Amino acid sequence: MKKLLTFLMIILVIVLAYNLFTFTVDETKTAVVKQFGEVVKISKEPGLHFKMPFVQNIIYLEDRILSYDIEPRKLITSDKKHLLVNNYALWKIDDPLEFVQSMSGQRTLAQTRIDDIVYSNLRNKLASETFNNIVSEKRIGYLNSITEKSRKQLKDYGIHLIDVKIKRADLPEANEEAVYERMSSERKQRAKQIRAQGQREAEIIKAEADKEAEIIGALAEKKAQELRGQGDAKALQVYSDVYSQDTEFYKFWRSLQSYKNSLKEKTTIILSEDMEYLKYLNPAN
Known about the structure:
By secondary structure, the chain is of the alpha+beta class. Among the domains are: about 20-60; about 65-175, Tetrahydropterin Synthase, Chain A; about 245-285, no CATH class. About 55% of the residues lie in helices and about 20% in strands. Strand 2 (about 30-35) and strand 3 form a beta hairpin. This is Protein HflC.
C-alpha cells in the first residue's frame, strides 16, 4: 500500500511538473509567452516547449485564415437609395507581437476593430456610388479598393486583411417595391423604344422595296414597249415587202382580215352589193 501511494505521488509530481514547466503548440496555433505582462517568446514550431512556472503564461493565437461575418448595415447610395449590405471579411494574424500588444490576443477585440474599419471604408465608398453601379460588376473594383485601404489600417494591429466580400446587398422592404416598379417602367419604356425603332426600320425597308419594285416595273414596261415597237416595225416591214411584191394579194389578205374582225357571230351589216368593200365576197368577181 505504501509503495502504491509513493507511485501515485511520483505520477502526480510528474504531471504537475509537466503542466508547470512545459506547454505544447498545435500546428494551427502560435503560442505567445508572456512574463510579467511582457512578451518574451513566440513559439510557432509545433511540439513540446518549456516555460518558467508561475511567472510565465501562454496565449494561444489562431494561425489559420479566419472569417468574420460583419453585421448587416444600412447604407445610402449617391442616388439616395437605402441599401442593406451583408458582408464578411477574411483575415489572419500576421504579427503575433503586435496583435498581443494591441488586441491583448483576443479575437473578439480584433473582430470589433475589423468591423469598425471595414464598415467605415465600405460606407464611404458605396455612399459615393449609385445603386446600379453597386449591384453591377463594378462592385468588384469597389471591394478591392476597400480591402486595400482597410488592410493598411489594420496592419498596425498585427492583422492581415485578406479580402472583403459582399454576401448580399438588398433593398429595405420599404422602398423595394418602388425600385422594382421603376426598374419595370424603365424596361417597358426601353422595349417600347426598341419596337418603335423596329417599326421605323420596317417602314424604311418596305418603302425601299416598293421603290425598287416600281423601278423594275417601269423598266419592264419600257422594255415591253420597245419590243412591241420593234415588233410593229417588223410587221410593217413585212407588210411593206408583201405589198411591194404583190399588190392585189395584199389587198385580198387585208380584206380577209377586215371581214374577220367585222363579220363576227350574230353580226348584221346592211351593205350594197356593188360596194368596193364586198368585192371579194361577190361570186361574180
